[in-house]
Every structure is written in C-alpha cells, then in structure tokens.
Amino acid sequence: MIAAILSLTVLGAILGIALGIANKFLKVEGNPIVDELVDLMPGSNCGQCGYPGCVGAAEAIVAGTAPATCCPPGGKALVSAIAAKLGLTVDLSALGDDGPKIATVAEELCIGCCRCARVCPTDAILGGPKQIHNVFREACTGCEACIEKCPTEALVMKPVPVTLQHWVMPKPRLA
Amino acid sequence: MNLDTLRDKLGYQPLLLGIVALLASGALAVVSDATAPAIAAAEAKDLRDSLSDVLPAGLADNDFLKDTVELDRDGKTVTIYRARQGEALKAVLFKVAERGYSGEIQVLMAVDMDGRTLGVRVLKHTETPGLGDKIEVKKDNWVLSFNGKSLLDPTPERWGVKKDNGVFDQFAGATITPRAVVKAVKGGLEFFTAHKAEITGQAA
Amino acid sequence: MTPATLTAQTVASPHAHGGNSVSRTMFRVQLALLPATLYGFWLYGWPAFFLWALTILSCVAFEVLSLKLMGTPRVKATLFDGSAVLTGWLLAMTLPPWAPWWVAVVGGFIAIVIGKQVFGGLGQNVFNPAMVARVALLVSFPLPLTLWVAPLPMSTLPTPDFVSSLRIFLTSLPVPDAMTSATLLGHAKTELARGIDLATALHAGPDLSWIGMRAGSFGESAAILILCGGLYLLITRVITWHAPLAVLAGVAIPAAIAHAVDPGRFLSAEAHLLSGALMLGAFFIATDYVTSPNTTTGQIIFGLGIGLLTWVIRSFGGYPEGVAFAVLLMNAMTPVIDRFCKPRILGRDRKGKPLDIPENA
Amino acid sequence: MGFMNLFKHFLGDDWGVHPDDRKRPAADRPLRVMPVPEKLYLPLQQHLGGPARPVVLVGQQVKKGELIAEAQGMISAPIHAPTSGTIAAVTDITAPHPSGLTLPAIILAADGRDEWIDCQGCADPFALDPVEIGKRVAAAGVVGLGGAAFPSAVKLTGAARSKVKTLVINGGECEPYLSCDDRQMRDRAADIVDGIRIMLHATGAREALVGIEDNKPEAIAAMQAAAAAVAEVHIRPVPARYPMGSEKQLVQVLTGKEVAAESRTFDIGIVVHNVGTALAVRAAIRDGRPLISRVVTVNGNCANDPGNVEVLVGTLAEEVIAFAGGLKGDGIGLARRVMGGPMMGMQIPHWRVPVVKGTSGILAFDAQEVAAQEPDPCIRCGSCVKACPMGLLPLEMSARIRNSAYDEAVGIGLKDCIACGCCAYVCPSKIPLVQYFVHAKGELAAQDRNKLRNDATKKLAQQRQERLDREAREKAEAAAKRKAEREAAAAAKAAAEAAAKQATETEGESA
Amino acid sequence: MSDIQYGRIIKDGLWEQNVVFAQMLALCPLMAVTTSGTNGLGMGLASTAVLVCANVLVSLIRKVVSAQVRIPVFIVLIATLVTIVDLAMNAWLHELYKVLGLFIALIVVNCAILGRSESFAVKNGVAASAVDGLAMGLGFTGALVLLGLVREFLGAGTLFAQASQLLGPSFAFLEVQVPGYGGALLMILPPGAFAALGFLLAGKRIIDRKLAEREAASAEPAAA
C-alpha cells in the first residue's frame, strides 16, 4: 500500500517536472494566426474598423473583441476568408455588400482643394491645388476616408466596373 | 503569498502534481481498505448464490466454497466445489467453457455422484442479444432441459441439438449457441467421469 | 443593352450533349434485370411477385416521403430518375422469395431512408442502399430471411394460387416444412459445422444449377439469366468489365486453390460462382456507380476485394453467404481506393509531377 | 460507334468522345465569298496577349490592308483595315465573349472601292532569313486560326530559337459542325502545302506532319496529292475522335511523344500550327497581304443553308448569316447562338457581334441540339473520368469547386484542364462541368489579382507613411535649424551686446 | 461571480448544451451501454455522481492549479473519484454493481467529465459548478435513457426490462413487453446505436428550429 502511494506520488512529481520544463522551453512566442490575418487584410490602415491599423484589427478579431465583419473595405470576401481561418460561422447575408466599390470624382463638382488627397492612405488621389482631382482605380482600396473630407460632395463611392479582363464565369446554380 | 507569480515557477508543477497524486493514492488506499472486506463478502455471497442455483436445495450442509479440489484440464486449472451431506459427498460443482457464436460461453454445472447433471447455468456469454441469449435462465427455460441427463441418457449420439438428430431443442435462427452449450455440458460430464476418482478424493 | 441583363444567362461550353441521362441508365439496368425477374416469378409463383411489387412500391413511397420532408423542390424529377425503383428491384432480387410483406416495407425504409436519403440522396450514399437493407434485414430478422422455399416446379406440392399466395404473403404463416429447402451454401455450412465431410454432405445436398433449379433468393437463382443481363449492360456500355470480372475472379481463384488443397473442407469454385448472390453482385451491385471507385484500376481492386471477402466470409464466417457483407465492406473502402487510384494526368507522372523534358528531343 | 470503338472501349483506351460530327452537308457545299459589308467592327483585341493600340483618327481615310492598330507588347498582333473606307468611330461594342461585355473597337465605314494598299510580296520566300519571315508574319497580324488566336509569329520565331525538329500541322478539326479547315484543304491544298514549306523554312524544322481526321477523306486525298512532290511534308490521317485537334493529343497521336505538363511543345522539339494559319502565313509572305479575312462555317439546325463563307474580319455575324441564307423561320426555334464550335465555342448574346480572326464558326442551334436540361445530382458514374483526354477527375474537381474549395481542385489537376468539354458532353446528369472549371479558374485568377492588389496597397500605404515621416522629419529639422539659427543669432547679439557693454564699462573704467 | 444565472446553467445542461445531443461527447459509453433504458439510467446516474463531485473538486482547487499541469491533475482527480465510486458500489450496492459494474470504469474515459472540468468548473465557483455538473449529468442521463429506450423498444420489443433489479422491486411496473413483436436485432447491435442516435439528433434539430421559429414569431409583434 505504502509502495503504491509513494510510487504514484513520485510519478506525479516527475511528470510535473517534465511539464514544467516543457513549458519553459517549448513556449511559442506571439500568435501566428494574427500574422496570417494581417496578410488577408487590405493593409491600408484606413482605420474604419476603429482599431489602430490592420494589425490592431487582426489582434482584436483573434481575441474575439471585434467581429469578423469589422473591415468594410475587405467586404464579403475578407469576412469569409477570416471565418474560414478561425472556424467561425458568420452571417454573410447581414453584410450589405454588393461587391467592391471605389471612390470616383465628379469632375463638375471638384474644386481642387486637395483635402481628400491628404487623407488617402494609399495616395490614390492625384491632383494639385485648384485642379480637378482624379482617383487611380488600381490604387483605391474603397476605404471611404476621403468621402467626408470633400466639401462639395464631389467624391462618391461607385462599384468597380466589370471589364472583360476581370469578368469571372458565374458558378453554376446548384442542382 | 502571491499565487499568480508562484504558479509559473518551475518547482511548483512537480510539487502540485506530487501532492495531488499523494492525496489521490491516499484516498484510494483508505477506500480500498474500507471496502475490501465488504467486497470479499459480497463476492463470496455471489459465488455461493450461483452455486446454490444449480444445486438442488437441501442437498448440501457443508460450506462447499471451502471444500475444493483443483484439477488440470487441458492446461487450465478447474476448481471443483464439493457438496456434502455430513461426510458423504453428494455432488460436485465446476465451471466449463466452450466457444459459442461470438466468444466463450461459461457454464456452471452441478453433477451428482452417478454422473447425472443436477443443474446447469450459463454464467457469462457474449452471444447476440435476443437470439443466442435464450441460454440464460432469465430469458428461457432451455438450460433446465439438461437436468437429470447423463452420458448414457440420452445415448452419446443423441447428445446434440435436434437439427443434428439430438434430443435438445435449438432456438429459431441460432444453432451454434445451443450446440456449444450442449457440447460444454457433455464435455463437463466426460471430464467428471474421467476424473471421478481424483474428484472424490479417493485417489489421494 | 446593359451588360447586367446579358450576364444573367451565361452558359459555358459545350453546347452539345451526348444524350445519355440518369433515367436512361437506370432503365437499361432494369431491362437487364427483367429476364431473371420473370423467371423468378415462374419459379416461385405469386408470392414472389407480391414481394417484388411491394418492395419497389415501398422504396418509391419512402423516396417521395423523404423528399417531401426535406423540402426538395425537384420531387418529380428525382422520382422519375428511376433510382428508387432500381434500388427496390435489386433488394427484392436478394430476398427469400416467400418473405412476408413487412420485410418488403422495412427493407424499403432501410434502403431508401437510412441507406440513401440520410446521406444526402442520389449520388451521395456511401453504401449500396439495397445491400444496406439486405444486411440490416438479415441481422435484424434472421428467421424469415433464411427461410428458403424450394423452386415450385421442383417441389412435390402444387403451386399456390393467387388467393392462397396472398395469404402466404400477408400473414407470414410458417411455410410448410415440405416446401422449405436449404441453400447449397447453408447446407454446406451446417454439415461442416457438424464435422461432416463435404464430399459426403454434398451427396445428399441440393444440386448446382445454371438455371436456378435450387433454393435461393428470388432473383439470384438463374445464374445464366443474370449473366445475360450483365452482358447486355456491358454491350450498351452501362458498365465495364473490370468490376464484375474482378469479383468473379476474386471468388473463383481462392476457391479453386482451397478446393484443390482440401476438397472435404472447401467448396469448389463452380459451387461458389453459381451460389447465392454472386452473379447478381458481380454484375449489378459491384458496378453500382455511386458506391464503386471511379477508375478502372480502382474497380479491379474493388471487385477483387469483394470476391475475396465473399469467399472468406462464406468459408470461415458465421453466415453461409457473404456477398452483401463483402460489398458493404468494400463500399467503405471506395473513398480510399479512389484516393490512391487516380488516372495519370497527361504530361504528368503518377505522382502529379510534370514529366521530365528529354534532353535531346 | 463502330465495332472498333466498342473493342477500344473494352480495352479502356477510350479517351475523348465520338460526337456525331454533323459536318455535312455544310462541308460539301462550295465555298462562298461574302461581299464587303457597309460597316466593319474591328475589336482591338482579337488575339491572346496585349490589345492593339489604334494608330488612326476618326474620319481618317484608310486603304485595304492598311495598319489601323499596332501591336503592343511582346505577345500581341496588329490589326489592318479589311477594306478601304473611313474610320467611323473608336468605341465599345459587344465582344465575341460569353460574358456579353463590351470591348473597344474601331468601326470602319466601307467606301465600296475595296482598294488595296501597295503590298510588298516576295517571290522567293526561301531566300529570306527566318527572322525576317517572323517579322513579316508579325507585321501581317497573323494569329492562330484554329480558335485560340495566339500570335503566330511568336510561335514561329520561338520554334526557330528552340531548334524545333518537327512541325505539326493541325488539320484535325475535331469540333462537330465546323468544316472551314476541311473546305480549305479541299480547295486550297497546294497553297497550304506552300505555306507549310514556308513555315518549315521559318522554324528550321526538318519535317511537317499534317494530321487530318479520317472523317474527311476528300481533304486527305487533296492534301496527299498536293504534298506528293514535297518530301518533307507528310499527310497523316488520324482517327476521328474529339478532341483530336487539341495540341497535346494531336502531338501524341502523330509523334508518340507526350508534352509534359506546365511546358510547351517546343520543349520536345515540336511546334503546332493550324492549316488555316499556313494559308495566312503564305499570303503574308508571298503576297505581303495581312490577315483581313477568314473562312467561317455557318451551321446548326436553325441555319437555312449551312455552308462555308469567306468573310472579312469585322463583319457582324448577323450579316454573315443573312448572306449564308438566313435563319429558318427568321429565327423561330433558335435556342442558342454560338461562335466557334459546339464543344469549345462561346455563347453570344445576340447576332450583332463581329467575326474576329479566331472565329471558326457561327452556329444557330435549336433546342433539340443544345439539349439544355436541369442538371441532376452526380451519380459518380465515372463517364467523365473515362472521357477526359487529360486523365483528370472532373467529378471530383466539380464537387470541390461546388464547395468553393478551389485550391483542392487545383491540387487534383484543375490547371491541366483544357476545357474541351468531353466531360460535360458525356455526363448523364448534365452537370455543367466545364462551367465549374472555367468559373474556378476565373475565381483563382481574381484571387491572384486581389493578392497583388493587396500587396500593392500595403506598399503604397507604407510609402505614404515614409513620406509623411520624412516630411515631418524635414519640417522638424528645418524648424530646429531655424531655431538654432535664431538662437545663434541671439547668442551672437547677446555676446556683441555684452562685449559692447564690457567695452563701455572698460572704457568707463579706463576713462 | 454574483451574476450567475442558474436557470441558464440548468437549461444548457439539459438541452442547449446537452452532452450527447449538442456537444456529441461521451459517445463511447453511450454506444456501449444503451442496449436498454435500464442500463442507460444506471450509467447516467453513476456518471452524474462523478460529474458533480469532479466539478466541485476542480472548482475548489481551481486557483491553485497551474495551467501546465491542470490536465494531469484533473485526470488523476477523476480517475480517483471513479475508482472510489466503483469500490463503494461493489461493496455496498452489490446488486446494482452487478448490472453496471462493467460500465463504471468506463466513466474515467468519459470525455464529458474532463470537458466540464476544463470548460466550466475551472472558471466558476463551487455552487455554480455543482449545479452545472448536476444539470449536465441529468442531461446525459436523459439522453442515455432516451436512446436506450428507443433501441430497446425497436430491438427487443421491451421497455425498461430489468428495471426492478436496478431500482428495486417496486419499480417493476415500468417493465413493458410489446406482445407479438420479436424486435429487430440490429437496433441492439452497435450499428443500431449509431442509426438511432442520428435520428434523435435530427429530431433535436427539428425541435430547435421549430422553437426558434416560434420565438421569432412571438418576438415580431412585440417589436412592432
């Protein structure tokens, strides 16, 4: 009986040492999943999510304090990618997303004030003072940061036009 | 003392696990000690109950659990319990086993000194429920049909199920199970006949 | 015209179709089953017909019920693809000819609801529904499922007329002993278990017959007619030869070897080939599209597996017949076989690496 | 299905499909030449690669064969005026594409005179340097006429560079309904053989193998007669089986060599060209004429008078059909409009779509021909696996794409799919397999584009941050500098004052 | 820890987070034991006892246990508890032990118990953990009994066979035998357990959906 008690106790102590050592030496620093999410995100640090940049949002999503749907420029595609990565179920229908949008300048309204160009996180708006501005379609991430800065409402979000190069054959309807 | 800082210290883990193991094994030791006599008593009662199941009431007045002899049968030790009335040996009880449809069937049988079965019970089996489990006395009276049978009654070629021209019934849909039990009982009787001298202790 | 209105109806190539369809395939299989079925009616009389009709009917009924419960919009289209009828038909072929009515109904439920719809309906089931039902029935109700009636033209008793047939079918009264008979496999198993040599046992036992003059399931008896149906399917390209031939070989080869070694213990290859559900299994069950591998190599492995397992179960197992168990076991292996037997992609080696470019081409 | 096919089926050597070829009677009707239409619509991208850039202005007069748009980039082709006339507009028109989207095009109003510019022909092409031939072919805007429209000059010069030994000429024309190559081989066999010889010269190949499906006996006979005197050109009948005209399959049947995945025929010393391309190369070299017309098959149950028509590139399909006899009952019963063949061609939304360089057929199908039906669930019959000429598992790929597991589909061979349509053709459940694959390929390309875009965005954001930091730093530095200057000035001033004070003090002291 | 909603915990244990029907845990004892309603009941009650004790103990020591060794500690605790229950039953409830004996040891590997320790007891107070253990245990018992009854009824045509052996002779009235029905043996065999569990799971989902619909329907006029 004594032998049984002793052996179990010693076994427990030895296993405890092993676990303690394992914990010391096999610790994983940082959270690799955050880096993976950052890779998925638009990366413009536009701040619409309310977190300090895309890294902040990724950390918040992993921690569970922010919903996967918090990134408007990422749209539906980003939400489903995040959901797949984290194994979440997200109600996509609630997300009023009708495809990616970009900012466009209504040339007759633009007064060339340069305010929009100053806030654009990707320098996608081009134009000097007193000149009509233009948006680089390829550089705009659709973050909408410029929209409220425009004094004349010359900037509007419009869906990205579908071209032959960007067209994708629709998925067949499910049988 | 701050537990939070202490918990991550290297020495804390073996200490904690060691204490838990100590407490657990200690508790088990206490409980085991406390229950051992009760368990032994209950198990002895079980065995006595099942033995007296096959033994007709009033046949024995000794504590046949204590009056045993151990014999070797095909490399396995068989414990034989002897029931006596006064000094006269009235019956012996022992277990036999046979492969059934799915695994071993353990049969307990009581044999009187003339080589007649006094009773047969299936102790343990893994036969298909609802099909082969009619060998249990709880489910069916079938095992009672062995009562009073001996190696000469019926004759050896009639020691089988009806399908094999024997005298014992088989159940619908299952032939293998009753066949195994019949074989076990027959084997038990043969074993008894072969070792009668040793069992009764006359050889010794 | 705006692009939006145009993109609504985009259709990819090809703009032509070979004309094959699910219902045509199912119809051809049923056509191939017809000769053996009609012959079965003649052998076993009206009860066999009732069993056949009710099995199919209950399969179709459970199919409709499941589709309705699941709210599938395409009830009619799914129903008329003929797959439920075929499942019921195949199941009926493997049942004892005089099985009572409730066997047909319970069988239909197991085949369609548990064997097929629970997995997601046509094309999604892992196991052959008819075989699932056959095995479930056999395990659940061993008694009525192992009661074989001798073919009537062979029996001494007169053929039951329509009314008494209906009574046999609906009341599940025990069949008179004079009409029952053991199957060859069952007889061999019982005698072997008693320790009687096969050579002696088969003297008194049932004969082998290419034309079904022996006890057995209602649709399996006439090996020759099943074979004809199978050949029809081969010629119309509904099936390929790989799986059936592999099944037959898988049984015949080990059987022939074992029989040569110990004829007193093992049945001959011929006895195995002409017994039980082997022919039906080889041509109609092992070739089931849904539950068999996609590639020809896979089908050969699958068929050999069924054959070998059938022989093992028949020779060493608890049940006298093993085709249904063997099919289910190999069905479970199908995804694995499919994973490892892939066709070689043109321009790549078997592992999927691009071929080496020859130096001096 | 002949007996041989059944035998092959039993052996398992059964890739591809044997569709009813429906080539006759259209193939047997003589070639008709369509007159110049009023207006020609010339999309700037009629070929694989970068779109051409217009070099004409609206209102400018051009002559037949004049360059109106130049090639842009390494892989591209120029476009020439198919007739003389005035440039009416440069605008967007409906593209010959299943999406029904628009693409930019030059619209040319014909003046009816059909005046050629001066063509610089060459009497003896074999005296020309192969590189020069390549340049002339490129300048003539010749692209592969089999359907893919890959710029031919790129292939010719590439073949010469990689020391190709065998030139395979694709006369397979395995697509049902189409007979434009068949017709040209019957009518212009000598010219084709001449074109092949020029190509042999240009590529440096030693021999040319012309593969022609055995369902075109007349074409085989004509070509054999024309090539009888040319030792290095061999006419090789091949069994009629779709997709025999696919590059990798034809090369394997003709030479027994297998083109490795992710590489090209060059790597095994072979280059493949279409018979129509041979004619276009001949015209470009011998006559100096650019590619401005092609032969198109008009066919389908709805076509009144099926046959082959030689039309100018840029002619609307509508006008081609009208010239070729119109539609039965003015299009009643028309179920689908297709450009190209039935197996790989594309559905077009209406007939006002121009014929481009790669257009091989204009097909008007009735409902019975397209056999469009609601798809049934997959029954895993494996027909598609047997039919796939590439050895893929279409049913497995489509199941994965259905669940949007595109990467898994790539893992089991999606990238090797040639979209030939055999799988969908044989599928008893009528599952639009090719549509799944095309969708997945598009989706993957879109994902790649998105990734590139994301990376670019990150770079932009980073650059902006650096710029802002730099500006802030410069500002701070400037401020610091100014401050330092100010302080220095103040210190100097103070020092001067102190000095002055001291001076006065000392003066006073000394005084 | 004052805002613990006991109603919530009980509802979770019995239905929403039911060990079997929602979490799909403890399937091994589930399949092995549920050949009859009686077996299911016995196993369920024994598991409940262990579950409550384990939850209470884990909750008591939760502040002392460090993350690195918590799993071995919990396992040792649970194994000890089960062994004590096993010994005690063998000694003092011998008749019951004869029915359930084989299955008691199985409770050690019942992942539901470690699961509750890990997910609930280690984060909550003693009282809440005890309630959670009880609710989860009763939910588990309910599932076992239900599955046992279904299998028993379909497979053997009886209900609560041998209940009097477990609960005492006064419960003999529970034992029901369907006359004239031999039973489908498959349901008693392991495949039958899977099939029956599958249908019960489907049933729970249907009920949940109906409940959600009713909730939505009753919530709508309130919102409007």
TrEMBL record, chain A:
Residues 29-88 form the 4Fe-4S domain. Binds 3 [4Fe-4S] clusters. Residues 101-130, 131-160 form the 4Fe-4S ferredoxin-type domain. [4Fe-4S] cluster 3 binds at C120, C140, C143, C146. Its cofactor is [4Fe-4S] cluster. Part of a membrane-bound complex that couples electron transfer with translocation of ions across the membrane. This is Ion-translocating oxidoreductase complex subunit B. It comes from Azonexus hydrophilus.
